[in-house]
Amino acid sequence: MSGGVSAAAFRSRFPMLDRRVHLSSCSLGARSVDLDRALLAMAEDMTAGGGAWEAFEEQNAQARRGFAALVGADVGQIALLPSASVGAYQVASTTDWGARPKIVTGSREFPSVAHVWLAQRPRGAEVVFAAHSTDPADLVDERTRLVSVPLVGYRDARRAPVAELAVASHSVGAAVFVDAYQAVGVEPVDVDALGCDFLVAGTMKYLLGLPGLAFLYARAPALADRAPRLTGWFGRRDPFAFDPTVLDFPTTATRFETGTPAVPACYAANAGLGLVGALDLAVVQEHVRALTGSAVAGLERQGETVRAAPPGSRGAHIGLVDADPSALAGRLAARGISVSPRGDVVRVAFHYFNNTDDVLALCEAVAADRRSAPPDRAGTERRSHVHG
Fold first, then answer.
1. What does residue 162 show for φ and ψ, rounded to 5 degrees?
2. Number of helices (H) and strands (E), helices first, in the chain?
3. Candidates 3.40.50.720, 3.40.640.10, 3.40.50.1820, 3.50.70.10; correct CATH number of 35-277?
4. Which residues of the chain have pLDDT under 70?
5. Which of 289, 279, 303 is nearest to 359 (CA)?
6. Taking a C-beta distance cutoff of 8 angstroms, is the pair 93, 218 a contact?
7. Nearest to residue 110, comparing CAs of 168, 149, 162?
8. Does domain 7-31+280-387 have CATH number 3.90.1150.10?
9. pLDDT (tens digit, 9 = 90+) per residue, 103-124?
């Protein structure tokens, strides 16, 4: 049981799972009855004409409250933004790189976030990438202004020791930015336990919403080096003052907000946050860990090469090595298995609604695909396994 909700009961909220095995939550969450009802509610609210905006604003506020509760933050520390990339930009653009120009990041960083850091070079930032075998803490010194780390890597699902990195970074005065997109919704995430200064996550993956909405947590929003350069009417002290001559920023994280949030994504976010918020995420994490372990064991017994972090530091997905991951994903989709290709692996992701039958279906589909492979493709795949 998880927070009084069993995995089977949770699964019942997703009728699509009766006809499809959804193993791609690392890319896009599964469709729930709650999501459908939320979007229908939005459509109904729109019948009020201009009066719908009051309902829309409440959805925005509810999403902020829901995410704050999920990560142990105060509501005033949460900003609603269109993407995690914009969240990273808001942090970067309000940071002075003059006296402390160094940004420490790593090869596990999601490119969109890393690209934001690289784009700060004309403003004087020095971006240093830690190699896979390098502890980012070893690169942090008195010239470091920001350390950026994914809580769970988007490719290898390896969980980073963020709390330890935060202690090392803070000891020399550097701030810590965490991308928690691949973690929030399937494991406990607490900003105080992590010790981070900033954290971003979005709604379309394990939070079971839609693209178009992300959250930025800022521990001390008003202590940024300078005011945001990207702004809009939702970034004002009173958005409804409608004064085009005044640019005032609140002391809360809403100072990082811009224009009107994506209203459908807010409705969907509240549906997903309601589902996830009812769960004990420590139980969810153990459930998912058991499924990833079963999948690794089953695929390896079939001769597959699997990339997976050790169980204690593993997120919610594993990587199946293949010579052409996109093509394999397409063939598995034709067999009713939804996965997500990235680089040289097919990512196989699990949520609380997944079960051992899904693992068996995956293994059987992969085995059937290998048996049906033409000789040239099979040979290529075997070589890929040897060198993977």
1. -65, -45
2. 12, 13
3. 3.40.640.10
4. 1-3, 375-388
5. 289
6. no
7. 149
8. yes
9. 999 989 999 999 999 999 999 9
